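Help wanted!
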Amino acid sequence: MTDVEAAVVDAHRRRWALVLASTARVAGDLDLAEECVQEAYAAALTSWARDGIPDNPAAWLTTTARRRAMDAVRRERVFRSKLPLLIEPEPEEPADEGDMDEPEDAVPDERLRLIFMCCHPALAQEAQLALTLRLVCGVPTVDIARAFLVPETTMAARLTRAKKKISTARIPYRVPGAAALPDRLRGVLGVIHLLFTTGYTAPSGTSLMRTDLMDQALHLARMLRELMPDEREVWGLLALLLVTDARRATRVDSRGRLLRLEDQDRSRWDRAAIGEAHDLIVGGLRGGRPGRYVLQAAIASLYAEAPAYDQTDWPQIVTLYDALLKVWPSPVVALNRTVALARVSGPARALADVEELEKDERLAGYQYLPAIKADLLRRLGRARAASAAYRQAMELATNEAERVFLAEQLSDLEEADQEAGR
Amino acid sequence: MAQYAILLYAQAPADADDLTPQEREAHQRHADELGDAMLTAFALQPSTTATSIRGDAVTDGPFVDAKEVVAGFCVIEAPDLDAALEMARRNPITQLGGGVEVRPVASGFVRG
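Answered by r_m:
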């Protein structure tokens, strides 16, 4: 890669949202804005190779994209003035050229506006996530389609529909007022978290992770923290992502096989990230009842901070799960709690809880339920029932690395069972 | 400014005559509060009085068979969706077991 290519790629990764956000304000239309921004990045390749990389690449790209947008808006106006019979909505006033030198402090606000617009409650959660990926992260539609396991044309149609709703229904391009903020923030946090988990265990394919999505999510969480420094749930989310991501390098072995938490090499965990998360959590737990993300981060952090798996503070984790269930009564949380409960009160007690959760329809088809159940049954020496549960989990697994892991657990179990029977 | 239709939904048959004086009063107060932003508003007779036509077939009752039916509608003017939602949220029907749907208006006219 040449220096110019590297600079353009870097500007794409770090500045896409900013350039798009600022262009959208001039264009008054997201499709037009996107087109102009794409053209500006393409123009940068030739222009920078000829004239050198500018001191402020983002400013260069923004100026170029906004000029193109303004030209397009002007052309559109001339076109309309020649068709006086067409009833037209009042066109958005494009900003003056002089408006282009924006103060530095306006920068983060632009990106935040874009995120909040994408996460407007008038848009379906799936559309919120897809739009955030497309508009804020600049992820190509084909990759978003892959993440959602749908054909590219389907995803393109979905994005078009969402963008059309933004312009037709006039979803405003702004950070909502204080009263609406908690509701919206929940959506924003949810989208960033979903983005991360989608990368953390890829919904399909042979590799366990999609690290590009994890990086994007971490980047967004950091950005949100800069912009909303007083929101404890934002600290919680960032901490949760950091502490989970700290184990990235050790989740699979050299052959790409999944490693359980207890089998991972703790010396290779990112201690700096775990430390940063710890500080955020301590702040987040202070003052008032902690929210969902702070509590989830605190649980993940206890797992990460234990010197060895067997020295994990299980009773404290169960206590945190109880608090989490109060603010976020999710069956998945209740299920995860049983893993820690098995350590505190024994596998039989945990199995009773898992069997109770099996009645919850929301967990039907959730592969981790039979996987957890299998592990508990195995520890209770009920090999036959454990085998059946492993098979059930394998049927439900969609990620190949996870399925291979379950198959190995099953074959280990059956070998041990045969030897015991001999 | 953009125009939005606010469609009011209530349990079938959504009879305006069933409204208590207090509920009627709440709707009037809401209209007064919106002032000039409210362009037009109509309450409808119950869905049992509706007649539907699809193609050539004429049938008794509302067009869509559902537990909740359109009880009335109004058209408001607002700068953006958030402002429209804010007005729609304050509609008394949202607190009386019903709800509203907010739809941007594409075009239309009113005679006189």
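OP: Thanks! One thing I noticed: Chain B has a mean pLDDT of 94.
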